[in-house]
Amino acid sequence: MTKGDMPTQQNTIQMPGEDILLSQAAVLPGGFDKSRHPVIILPPSQYPNLFQLRKKDVLQLLRYLTHLSRVWFSSQGIAVLADLTSADQEVVSLVLGLIHKLQASVGKIKVLYLILPENRSTKKHLAKEIQKLQKEGACHFQITLLRNTSDLQTYIDQSQLLAYFGGTLAYNHKAWVKLQMRLEDLDKLVENILAQLPQTLEKLNSLQRQVTSSLRANEDVKVQQVETKKSLIRKDLYLDEALKEADALLEYMNNPHLDGFFSLMSRQAVFKPMMSGVPLNYTKLLKAKRKLDNATKDCEVGLGTEGELPNVVLLENEMKKIISWIDLKGRSYLNSQTDVPETLREAQHLPIKFDREIYKQAKYAGWFFQTS
User: Fold this and answer.
1) Percent of the chain, pLDDT > 70?
2) Name one GO cellular component term (predicted).
3) Strand order in the sheet with 142-146
4) Cβ contacts of residue 45 below 8 Å, gap of 6+?
5) Closest by alpha carbon to 163, among 36, 34, 18, 45?
6) pLDDT digit string (tens) for 3-15?
């Protein structure tokens, strides 16, 4: 099975394609409004992309960012910011339509910040669109209308705004996309591993049963073949690769200065929330590794050099020899040696008797076990 053939667990919210993410039709830079709602921004410079992309793709992007805001910030609601200063009526209708559909599908919008259009007719069109939504009962969130970006800082602190809005929040969108795609790859790999782990453990248990059965039947077992099968079973799970990736990400999370890219990302407010899932994934992988190691170890019990019996089988065979000796001649001999001495002289003679008689029999029994 190749990595591409591995079945994947379907997330509730799928990550959009790279081209949609890079479009910047909507972004989640990590800023909050003063009510502590994460702010999703529809950058005005990217409004043309709203028309170039399919509406369902833009909506998928908005849903995905809403999902991330809940995962990263444990947020029960979001704020959406759209600057309509230079927008025309078509843009206004499209933006409000997307917000309406987003709210209808996820219901997480708490407030919509709209910077009013400069064009008077467009401003009137915006008022009509809002009124229409309100009449339809579609506005289950607060709408805050702002005259300009300066008014925006009444609701969102300057430190939580991008430079375009007069803020100081650091954000590099291409770097954000690159890191998020890497984190999503790890998430999917961990999901696949956990989903396939029971089947992998059963394969190892089945291999162990086959080996034990062959040894009991005195069939030849090639140790190298067993080890190769175990190695292939483990390799198909991709656990070692996932652990290596999680370990690297954990190291960069704690020491971002070790890598130029992570050093850049660490200066962004969104970095720590983005990386917050790495320790959990690492813990899941370690638990999976312990289970896999235990199953692999169970399959190695006593299987040392080629042709050597497992310890359990050896012990069983030796016990059979002891029982056989007792049944044949040992029982009568042992019974003859159970008399309790009546005098001190007889008791003092017991060590001599042991060396001359019992020890001699014990040596004989040992020879019997080894040569029979």
Assistant:
1) 74
2) plasma membrane
3) 39-42, 78-83, 109-115, 142-146
4) 24, 164
5) 45
6) 443 333 334 688 9
Burial label, 370 (beta-carbon count in 10 A; 0-12, 13-18, 19+): exposed
Whether the Cβ atoms of residue 194 and residue 239 lie closer than 8 Å to each other: no
What string of DSSP letters covers 109-159?
EEEEEEEPPSSHHHHHHHHHHHHHHHHTT---SEEEEESSHHHHTTTS-GG
Rounded to the nearest 10°, the torsion over CA 203, 208, 212, 217 is 30
Q: What is the domain range of residue 43?
A: 18-169
CA distance 149 to 272: 28
Within 13 Å and on the Cβ side, how many CA atoms surround 2?
2
Same domain membership, residue 65 and residue 164: yes
Q: Which of 128-137, 240-249, 352-361, 363-372 has the highest mean pLDDT?
A: 240-249
The DSSP line for 13-38 is: SPPPPHHHHHTTSSB--S-B-TT--B
Domain end (from 169, 185, 211) = 169
Q: Could you read off the pLDDT of 296-345 as tens digits, one per residue? A: 877 664 444 444 445 555 566 667 767 776 666 666 666 666 666 667 67
Cβ contact 69:28 at 8 Å: yes
How far is 349 from 361, CA to CA, in rounded Å?
Answer: 18
Average of per-residue pLDDT across 223-252: 89
311-325 vs 173-216: helix axis angle to the nearest 10? 20
Please answer whether residues 99 and 109 qualify as being in contact, where contact means their C-beta atoms are separated by less than 8 angstroms.
Answer: yes
Of 290, 305, 320, the residue that ends a domain is: 305
E runs forming strands in the chain:
39-42, 78-83, 109-115, 142-146
Q: How many residues does the chain have?
A: 372
